[in-house]
């Protein structure tokens, strides 16, 4: 299916996802709520409102990852173009607003771009704008859950695929899951393909804690929006005002943990099922793992990706790796 935007620029759209609130998503959600401790996959954050709130997180002064990664991409664009090479197909995993890739397009000049995201409306909107702004670029959009098994959409020229996975989204996976995810990419991509990946670095705890507890409360709103989504999309019967945002660095596991804490002892209902929260009990909503440069290289190597280049900012807050599929 090809969807025309108002500026009549074509985006080739590939719907690879069952409709929102499908049985599998609902089952996954309920499974997490039944577990001890209660948990929810971070992908549930990203409804339209959640994606908008995430975009606002990215411009909060305490949230350094986006600013640092963009600065690195801007500074290193020509170097990146050099290692990526000519006639690439850039495949962005979790493309969101497709803003970061803009920093690379003029330098890298790929033949085509494929944005993959779970938030359908957000994806369509941002890839349409990209197609309008870069008329020379063949733009594709696939609505899919890239944490599940994926297939390459048909009609996309793919002589030199380069996956682009910015934002340290890899940090949402536990290290063993990250390795498994990279193995999946390894089997999807031919030998010689590239992987340009942003990875947040281990650093002073105070900087990490501040980044996930911004003074304007945007990260809190993002976390709490999950409860609104439960209400509207999954027949949730609960009062979001009875939960609080919690985020802290777990040093032993090199990860930020986000939780929704129940302020009271209560029973809620989701999709007709009853869940009890003790006062202070949490729903664990996200992990964001941090790596050292060598730690991430070792993980990638175990999945069959060899380190080709690395860029960081002067304070070593954030890193961008270029890896080649062996
Ligand atoms: C998109 C997973 C990289 O872990 O920093 C930001 C998500 N959560 N603030 C991160 C997030 C709270 C973000 N990632």
From TrEMBL:
Give a GO biological-process term. methylation
Q: Which domain of life is it from?
A: Bacteria
Which Pfam family is one of this chain's hits?
A: Methyltransf_33
This protein's record includes keyword Amino-acid biosynthesis: no
| Entry-linked InterPro entries | EgtD (IPR035094), EgtD_Methyltrsf_superfamily (IPR051128), MeTrfase_dom (IPR019257), MeTrfase_EgtD-like (IPR017804), SAM-dependent_MTases_sf (IPR029063)
Query: Has keyword Methyltransferase?
Result: yes
Keywords associated with the record: Methyltransferase, Transferase
Which is one GO molecular function term here?
methyltransferase activity
Residues forming the Histidine-specific methyltransferase SAM-dependent domain are 26-324
Note the NCBIfam families from the entry.
egtD_ergothio (TIGR03438)
UniProt protein name:
Dimethylhistidine N-methyltransferase
